[in-house]
Amino acid sequence: MSISLRKITHQVSVGNVKVGGGAPIVVQSMTNTDTADVTATVNQIIELAQAGSEMVRVTVNTEEAAKAVPEIRDRLDRKGHTVPIVGDFHFNGHRLLEKYPDCAAALDKYRINPGNVGRGKARDPQFQQMIEFACQYNKPVRIGVNGGSLDPAVLARLLDENRALPNPEPLAAVTRKAIVMSALESAAKAEEIGLGKDKIILSCKISNVQDLISIYQDLSSRCDYALHLGLTEAGMGSKGIVSSSAALSVLMQQGIGDTIRISLTPEPGSSRTQEVIVAQEILQTMGFRSFTPMVISCPGCGRTTSDYFQKLAQQIQTYLRDQMPVWRTQYPGVEEMEVAVMGCVVNGPGESKNANIGISLPGTGESPVAPVYEDGEKTVTLKGDRIAEEFQAIVERYIESHYGEKAEA
């Protein structure tokens, strides 16, 4: 796999997490609780962290939210969760950080949007005030430009310049330039105020996939700041997953991106952790990082009229992911394991042999037995009504023998 890596010589420290400078691409997420509700916010941060989110952003939009941040940090620490908390500020961040210094100190990073940090003459002094707080409390800042809240002054200036050209560019092209320019100019101002490059992360988010790719290619060619990737609003369900996968995979394959977030609209009543799982799976399927054992399973066809293999694949996949909060420390390396759950004799034995451990279930009309392969060798043939339970037990024994303390010894 050929990957053109972007050269960033500095790293940004966000709490205990390193961003850029050769560090692994970091998975982020964001709560959707009312931050003023300390209990609900702490519970969701823990849920996201246990799913694998390496930093969690919270909305800090009111005095009540700002007051709650130190208590949220304290409760997380007392529960043994050190995941960094990022404060998301819009419109009034300068006032909240000034009035609530404990909030400013408790957060691990500030997120500032140049498009709504202040309007007109208020913009520059309010932006400066935010950066000065970051310098005072030694906090990194993500300067996050959004297409939906682009600084109108920057866009107006570039539109005026464009109109004066012999061959003016389309509005979409000028808007893309304005998004990049807003980020770069804001970063330059932050450095002038005193914030070092090792405290700055940039993002330029928009919802259109091709526009996002073009914007980040332009941005990355013009700076060496650490970059955060993500669509502004990815959407719901498969649309959001596909859009995010398409955009971020192209950019990361080019070496662009140091942190990512998948901004999925949650299905009604569903867990917020879905965005974390999708981010991890994009990174893992692209070969950048490993988070949990991967289950390889076939789509099914006329040879697999039973749904048994589908249920077993789902059961094993859920089981493996649920165990990872414990296994991550108990069985180092297990996240790189592959498990195959196949539905018939066509590809079943071959795929099972290629995985660390695999099972080839009988298809329609085949002998009702299921051979199990470990590291390419058939070790047992399962049959009867307890194939699922017996295979899970075999997976557990494999993990213990290959990744446990005895295996290391």
Structure report:
By secondary structure, the chain is an alpha/beta fold. The protein has 2 domains: 12-286, Dihydropteroate synthase-like (TIM Barrel, Alpha-Beta Barrel); 294-403, Sulfite Reductase Hemoprotein, domain 1 (2-Layer Sandwich). It has 14 helices and 17 strands. The chain has helices spanning 38-51, 63-78, 93-99, 101-106, 123-136, 152-163, 171-193, 209-222, 237-253, 274-285, 308-330, 348-354, 387-403, 405-408, and strands spanning 12-14, 17-19, 26-30, 55-59, 85-89, 109-112, 141-146, 200-205, 226-229, 235-236, 259-260, 264-265, 294-297, 338-342, 357-360, 370-374, 377-382. It has an 8-stranded parallel barrel with strand order 3-4-5-6-7-8-9-11, surrounded by 5 helices. Strands 13-14-15-16-17 form a 5-stranded mixed β-sheet, sandwiched between helices. The chain has a two-stranded antiparallel ribbon with strand order 1-2. Strand 8, helix 8 and strand 9 (226-229) form a beta-alpha-beta unit. Helix 3 (93-99) packs parallel to helix 5 (123-136), helix 6 crosses helix 7 (171-193) and helix 7 (171-193) crosses helix 8. The longest helix has 23 residues, at 171-193. The chain is elongated, with a radius of gyration of 24 Å. Pfam families: GcpE, GcpE_C. Converts 2C-methyl-D-erythritol 2,4-cyclodiphosphate (ME-2,4cPP) into 1-hydroxy-2-methyl-2-(E)-butenyl 4-diphosphate. Residues 295-396 form the IspG C-terminal domain. Belongs to the IspG family. Keywords: 4Fe-4S, Iron, Iron-sulfur, Isoprene biosynthesis, Metal-binding, Oxidoreductase.
